[in-house]
Amino acid sequence: MSENTQVKNVVLVHGGFVDGSGWQAVHARLTAQGHRVAVVQNPTLSLDGDVAATHQVLDELDGPAVLVGHSYGGVVVTEAGNHPKVAAVVYIAAFAPDKGESVATLIADPPPGAPVPPILPPRDGFLFLDREKFAASFAADVPAELAAFMADSQVPWGVEALAGAASSPAWRTKPSWYLVAADDRMIPPPAQRAMAERAGATTVEVPGSHCVYVSRPDAVADLIRQASGS
Q: What is the pLDDT of residues 197-228, one digit of tens each?
């Protein structure tokens, strides 16, 4: 992307256990700065379904877009980022898989001492986080009342979505950016740094939990603006 090219459109993709409403503060900051922001309400039932939902939003845009994914949303944007309207891909404490990798393969062998997300055993093909441990693992730096609400309003995450593997990683052909959440207890920060480095992403690191897109919206919006060329 040349310095003279500013991308106005931004598309935000949420991860597992949550919906798109968590992007509200980021949305407010970007729209105030003149961006046209769309939030994908991806169902998180399957990777193919979430890519299709993202493509549907991209298809409606009037020009190029920066595509942003948080957590599992990183897998979605890795695949959906091959859409011709995507100018850049941004990962926010997200999985950035290579070809053949999925969330399931990326979390299969955690290093010794790494925090283990409190994911409950599957129920009817869906996953939830332990409500009592949700705040500490996912949202340790957001107000307690909000973290409790997020724990009580979890979106069922389909086991099939975790198994969805990247087929053609967009970061291999599109410029990418990555925000590492240094206090993340869902995706270990060393794993985030390794994925960012592998992708050749322009990387920033900020103090923050896995819910950094809620707790640090200024930092998240700033990185997206950088990716947009503004």
A: 999 999 999 999 999 999 999 999 999 999 99
41-82, pLDDT tens digit by residue?
Answer: 999 999 999 999 999 999 999 999 999 999 999 999 999 999
- For residue 11, what pLDDT is reported? 98
Portion of the chain with pLDDT greater than 90, in percent: 93
Count of domains forming the chain: 1
Is 35 a member of any domain?
Answer: yes
Q: According to the model, what pLDDT value does residue 112 have?
A: 84
In a domain, 127, yes or no: no
221 inside domain: yes
Q: What is the 3-state secondary structure (H, E, C) of the chain?
A: CCCCCCCCEEEEECCCECCHHHHHHHHHHHHHCCCEEEEECCCCCCHHHHHHHHHHHHHCCCCCEEEEEECCHHHHHHHHCCCCCEEEEEEECCCCCCCCCCHHHHCCCCCCCCCCCCECCCECCEECECHHHHHHHHCCCCCHHHHHHHHHCCECEEHHHHHCCCCCCHHHCCCEEEEEECCCCCCCHHHHHHHHHHHCCEEEEECCCCCHHHHCHHHHHHHHHHHHCC
CATH code for the domain of 46: 3.40.50.1820
What percent of the chain has a predicted confidence (pLDDT) above 70?
98
53 within domain boundaries: yes
Q: Which domain holds residue 207?
A: 9-105+161-228
